[in-house]
Specification:
Two copies of one chain form a homodimer. By secondary structure, chain A is an alpha/beta fold. Chain A is built from 15 helices and 18 strands. In chain A, the strands form three sheets. A six-stranded parallel sheet of chain A has the order 3-2-1-4-5-6, with helices on both faces. A six-stranded mixed sheet of chain A has the order 8-10-9-7-11-12. In chain A, a hairpin with a 3-residue loop joins strand 11 and strand 12. Chains A, B: Pfam families: ACT, Homoserine_dh, NAD_binding_3.
């Protein structure tokens, strides 16, 4: 049994999806329980330049024929039509669909859900909400036994990049936007991002997911960031806060006390200690408050070819597993784990931060640096300060190494300890995340 | 069709699971597609005091009989036996199992997986890895089409609480531990937490999940935080870093160049800008690096009755859905979304940060405060500074309100703008996360 996969569109994300399907086919087959066969890629112009080199014969202009022969259709064309027609056609004839098309989902989710129902097919769209960040599945499944009360998301990388740049550099909006455009973080026409329209479509999807409903885009209140000034950002900093463009969906009541759901996108002040305040640059994050789970946050890249392709492929493998499972007679077994080889701590790749108390005399630094070099370890920073702990004539030396093998780092420390000029190795802590 | 649920154990987490199953039965039935029936709770002493009031007749001491009549068994007894025997018995006869028992899973995951396979049942353990944080499903499913290269987790709330307290207050380890014990963040015997044993069991599970394998606990290198001093913490701060106890699992090579997996728990320096550095108090987080998705982080509460119960219930609903779906003939349809009522922006509950340029004369503050109060809005902070923008005789006034209905806040601003003493409302930004 083979799972036939049709790809519609081959832009930034589509070309990465094609690359993964072709390059990782053995690995994917093991996880799915059956091979995934990329039967073709429908594009308008098969001869256009692509980000990834792909065989010419895999391209077709006949999307309908491709859709009709597929078990799984991956729609990455974008826009309302013809994407919507292809998806509905696939679902009604029982092929499952993976899409990252937030505009289409925000406009037509109820009809597409109905088409999936009618065809007994699955419609998954992890890539549509916050790019690579797993959010659809955690909300739909992991939190299925809880009640979400509020969702707040940084779901547009362009505006977060601009606001973060204004916060860091004190620049005005126009300047930060121009820089973002120059660096490729904002489009030539930035309207959809800076006016909040992109975030609003994602807010509608988040609200639908979080509250087990379908929330229409037209009911999302939307304000962008164009009116935010350097003075607003400075005032926020002064108050211990930061300005973020948030997509917010929460349960509430109207003035008559009747329950409802409020969904809105607007610039928002957050205390600097809030987990969302630490989301920098073009990163995205979704913060969730649930009745029992309390506060949760999901953080990652919200856009980009490879990250978004990762989310698409997660959906493809999930559907593929279901298909393979059904074909095998409906067992719910997980794919079998494979053996692995544990590496001992000596083989860990890490870096060390050392504090040493040494004699305050000439030649000590050179002596220590010599031992470090002999073990093939390299030093990132070395700082010497006067030391109270070591007593008179002592200096405190702090060394941070580059990444090396633990065995070499440990041997280095052992040799340093033997040096007569070294009074004590007062601490050794490993470093990550540099 | 009813899904019969047996609960083993009724401690901190178990009593919350029982509460949710009993209180939320209608909501859960809608999500599962069939009612979940709590058939009983097996405990040693049915008359013991519980966190939650539960009907006496629901308790039993006969765990075997309870297991044998169940579709889903929730194991929250903890420890190796008899928990392991109950789980294996349930799985082999085809009942799916939800557990949060990390010690048992770290010791016996391969056998239990095999038992699930043999019985055609599911074994889910979202609660075992990082409490309420959805991590099992994102890694197993959302990232199923990607390759994880490294996982770093803050997976023990007690040690993170202690290290965070040392970072904030400059306290020594013993003092911070004593405070944590007094506040209920550390147990009377803190060994399993502070020596890293709890984190090591979770590290083995994370490694198994991330690398599609089974990684044995005995191969995890484990160091605790008892040797971390206030001086280490101060030196870290001085270098722009913070010390965290991390569980790390990554692909690597040994000195011969052969591939393997390194899993370790040790105190680790992280730059303050790293997303894991912002994880404060008893919170947990898991940071994942994947080939295509790049950097991801999952953040939330790693322990506690209700948060952990949320993770357990997510697994229960997921299994229940599969059962209900299979009983209905194998359709893969999602539960139907329900209608919801959108609230307009006027009904959003939010708070405002206002900047006003006002005449620098007596009575202005009282006049503005009076308008605010008339709209039923209350002020959290009000600050006056000299203003350059407003010209001579001007002051800049910054007001942050408490949470109120948007309509009242907007009306307040409109009235303030009409005041002769107000020269300009220079900015209005909403505030969240206070």
């Amino acid at each position: 049994m083979t799972v036939k996969v049709a790809l519609l569109g081959c832009g930034n994300v589509g070309s990465q999806v094609a690359r993964i399907l072709l390059e990782q086919s053995d690995e994917l087959a093991a996880r799915v329980g059956a091979p995934l066969e990329l039967t073709g890629i429908a594009v308008r112009n098969p001869d256009a330049a692509r980000d990834v080199e792909l065989p010419r014969e895999i391209f077709t202009t006949d999307a309908h024929a491709l859709v009709d022969g597929a078990d799984i259709v991956i729609e990455l064309i974008g826009g309302l039509e013809p994407a919507g027609e292809y998806i509905e056609r696939a679902l009604r004839r029982g092929a499952s669909v993976v899409t990252g098309n937030k505009a289409l989902l925000a406009a037509r989710l109820p009809e597409l859900t109905e088409a999936a129902e009618a065809g007994g097919a699955q419609l998954l769209y992890e890539a549509a909400v916050a790019g690579a960040i797993p959010i659809l599945r955690p909300i739909r499944e992991s939190l299925a036994g809880d009640d979400i009360t509020k969702v707040m998301g940084i779901v547009n990388g362009t505006t977060n990049y601009i606001l973060d740049a204004m916060d860091t550099s004190g620049a005005q909006f126009d300047q930060a936007l121009a820089d973002a455009q120059r660096l490729g973080y904002a489009e030539a026409d930035p309207t959809a991002d800076v006016e909040g329209h992109d975030a609003a479509a994602k807010a509608a999807l988040l609200a639908s997911l979080a509250f087990h409903t379908t929330f229409a885009l037209e009911n999302v209140h939307c304000e962008g960031i164009t009116s935010i000034s350097a003075e607003d950002v400075a005032a926020a900093e002064d108050a211990g806060m930061v300005i973020k463009l948030l997509a917010i969906a929460e349960r509430g009541t109207d003035s008559a006390g009747d329950e409802g759901i409020s969904v809105r996108v607007h610039p928002t002040l957050l205390p600097r200690e809030h987990p969302l305040a630490a989301v920098r640059g073009a990163f995205n994050a979704v913060f969730v408050e649930a009745e029992n789970a309390g506060e949760l946050m999901f953080y990652g890249q919200g856009a980009g070819g490879a990250p978004t392709a990762s989310a698409v492929m997660g959906d493809v493998v999930s559907i593929g597993r279901t298909r393979a499972t059904q074909a095998a007679g409906g067992s719910v077994a997980e794919p079998q784990p494979r053996p692995s080889r544990p590496l001992g701590i000596a083989d860990a790749a890490t870096s060390y931060a050392l504090s040493l108390d040494v004699s305050d005399e000439t030649g000590v630094l050179a002596e220590i640096a010599g031992i470090v070099a002999r073990h093939g370890v390299s030093i990132e920073t070395m700082r010497q300060t006067a030391s109270a702990e070591g007593g008179a004539g002592s200096a405190r030396l702090r060394i941070i190494t580059h990444v090396g093998r633990e065995a070499a780092l440990a041997a280095t420390v052992a040799d340093i300890e033997q040096l007569p000029v070294v009074k004590a190795v007062s601490s050794v802590v490993r470093v990550e995340g540099k």
